[in-house]
Amino acid sequence: MYVGAMVRKMSSWRLPALSAGLVGVLMISGCGGSDTSEATPPSTLDGLVEAAKAEGQLSVYGAVAPAVLDRVTASFEKKYDIDVSTVRMSSSDLYTRFATEAQSGKPGADAILPTFGERDVSVLTEDGLVTPLADAGIPDYPGGYPEESQIPDFGTAAVNYVQNGLAYNTDMVKGDDIPTDWSQIADPKWKGKLIAAYPNSSPNTLNFFNFLLETQGPDFLEALRANDVKYVDGESPAVQAVAAPDPTLSRRRGAAQPW
């Protein structure tokens, strides 16, 4: 049973993922600052795969949806015959845990898949806790990797895009009441009926509120405040609340429901 439906009726909703959605990126451990200058990376993909097999296992921290992480892991293991261990957590927890472990010289992950956050990525890069993809010894990188998905200034690349939208309870919001534009949720009729993740709960959520500030202006955010938005720790609780009698409407990621 659908507990929400996605709204995408106006062209203004078709927004660049970097502005209005989640961007998952790939980052490679910098080995906690250990000296790897004498190591010569394999020059071919086959050589890289064999070297990885010799190490025994690939460890990954991911902030993507559990089902996506499981599916990607299974596909990787099947294709390359390399065991993968994964730990799924929020991006905020991921950045904190990875940085703490790497600074101690014992990084717990070979690679991380967090949500892109400029400040967080910059800290990891500037402290040498991750290796820029261009310097990681990946044969032929970037090769044919889509140029629009490369983020060379931060030494990473986008591997996952999820666009943000609105979810609403289809039993409680019908017809002309269904929002078709961000500005409509500032209407006082939604007072006490809105829910969202705390702005600082993840880079994605913070980017989203910055997007609202830039596109709708400060008066819009003041109107949201006046509407007594209920904030929760993360998007999953917000999505789950859509099925409850109150609140009626929430912001959510756009991957789980058809548009």
Gist?
By secondary structure, the protein is an alpha/beta fold. Helices cover 32% and strands 21% of the residues.
Description:
The protein is α/β, with parallel strands linked by helices. It folds into 2 domains: 20-160, D-Maltodextrin-Binding Protein, domain 2, CATH 3.40.190; 166-251, Periplasmic binding protein-like II (D-Maltodextrin-Binding Protein, domain 2, 3-Layer(aba) Sandwich). The protein contains 8 helices and 11 strands.
**Tally of separate domains:** 2
Structural class by sheet pairing and helices: alpha/beta
CATH class of the largest domain: Alpha Beta
> How many helices does DSSP assign?
8
Mean pLDDT: 78
Number of strands: 11
CATH architecture of the largest domain: 3-Layer(aba) Sandwich
What is the share of helical residues? Answer: 25-40%
Low-confidence stretches: 1-20, 32-37, 253-259
Overall body shape? elongated
Query: What fraction of residues sit in β-strands?
Result: 15-25%
H/E series, N to C?
EHEHEHEHEHEEEEHHEHE
Task: Give the radius of gyration.
Answer: 21 Å
Distance between the termini: 16 Å
Q: What would the CATH topology of the largest domain be?
A: D-Maltodextrin-Binding Protein, domain 2
Largest sheet: 11 strands, mixed
